[in-house]
Amino acid sequence: MKAGAQGARKLRSMLFVPADSERKLAKGEASGADALILDLEDAVAESRKGVAREMAATYLAARAASGSAGPALYVRINPLDTAYAMADLAAVTGPGLAGIMLPKTRSAACIARLSHGLDALEARAGLAPGRVAIVPVATETAEAMLTMQSFVGAGLVRLAAVTWGAEDLSAAVGAMSNRDEDGSYAPLYQWAGALCLAAAAAAGVAPLDTVYTDFRDSAGLATACRASRRRGFRGRIVIHPDQVAVVNEAYSPTAAEIEHARRIVAAFADNPGAGALSLDGVMIDRPHLVQAERTLAQLG
Question: What's the whole-model pTM score?
Answer without folding.
Answer: 0.90
